[in-house]
Amino acid sequence: MLNSLDLPKRPEDTRVVVAMSGGVDSSVVAALLKREGYDVVGITLQLYDHGATMHRKGACCAGQDIHDARRVAERIGIPHYVLDYESRFRDTVIERFADSYLAGETPIPCVECNRSIKFAELLDTARDLGADVLATGHYIASRPLPDGRRGLFRAADPDRDQSYFLYATTQAQLELLRFPLGDMTKPQTRELAREFGLTVAEKADSQDICFVPNGRYTDIIERLKPGAVAPGDIVHVDGRVLGRHEGIIHYTVGQRRGLGLSVGEPLYVLKLDAERGRVVVGPKELLATGTIRLRDMNWIGDEPLESLPREGREVAVRVRSTRAPRPAVLRAAALGAEVELLAPEEGVAPGQACVIYDSLEGRARVLGGGTIGSTLAPAAAAKVAGGVAA
């Protein structure tokens, strides 16, 4: 007989470490598992100087969140520990975030935090505490596969699904992770929080990047890398110099507003050329992407990535967290993978994630993903663009 966490032990003989952020989701996970009789230990990570983010709504990992997690632990009667991971977080997440922006990319620090801190360092801590599994409040599901491994699947609530941010979970990590909210909706979670009498039942969801308390990531980069932000030219895709900028970190692919140009036509950021310090702009139709080249791949599919057929495999991919998966063809490549989009996507930016699913279905399985290294326009758009934005 397996318990609710798919382990062949009684709940009372099963130790579970719950990653408690201080929000309603992870608090409900801890309370649910405690009610089921598991040996629950709560851990909160101090990732950033919480004095800088104290009392700021929408920021995770702040001082108030640590306080809230502690209160929840007291309410449900479990031990709770706060671990200082600030230095590791700074080196692994914040520094890489800054370097990526300076390289003309648009990074997602939450992906790196999950990969390198929460699902690596915290898993090691859970093992040290004798835990059988680590549970989190993410909206994603993991289920046993026919071959005995565990698979990662989209959440039941499509509006809350967090698979885009968790594609980098490795197979080894997946075996020790559990996501009790994967089959729930957010309203159901809040109702459970009220039922448990948790003070965080109505707490707002986190939205900001935790280490950007004022919402201005450029301030963080300029402080971390003084002198690295250099001005340069704003260049039309046809080669015309249209103006100047104060640093490519102030722009993102697909941006239209705030360019400071008066040229009589709507222009969009097509590319950030870090090597030459240029912001390349052009008409909207040139934002279309037909092919995506991926690096830093994480693959948790059944067959090895390199064994895919030469013609590729039909999959579904997601290139932004706010977009639905779209049909594509996946092929293995020398340094990662290549994705051919069956319908062009606009505003696909290097540094973002491309997450790969086995189908377009609502509860599709996550096969992995990678960081977008470069993009290629559809053939027709490429001819119009010439070589300026290449």
Structural class determined from secondary elements: alpha/beta
The CATH topology name of the largest domain reads: Rossmann fold
Strand content: 25-35%
Corresponding CATH superfamily of the largest domain: HUPs
Q: What is the CATH domain class of the largest domain?
A: Alpha Beta
Provide the spatial order of strands within the biggest beta sheet: 12-15-14-13-16-17
Shape: globular
Low-confidence spans: pLDDT under 50, at least 5 residues?
52-56, 380-385
Mean pLDDT score: 91
| End-to-end C-alpha gap | 58 Å
For the sheet with most strands, the description reads: 6 strands, antiparallel, barrel
Record field, number of beta strands: 17
Number of structural domains: 3
Instruction: Indicate the percent of residues in helices.
Output: 25-40%
How many helices?
10
SSE pattern: EHEHHEHHEEEHHEHHEEEEEEEEEEH
What's the Cα radius of gyration?
Answer: 22 Å
Name the CATH architecture of the largest domain.
Answer: 3-Layer(aba) Sandwich
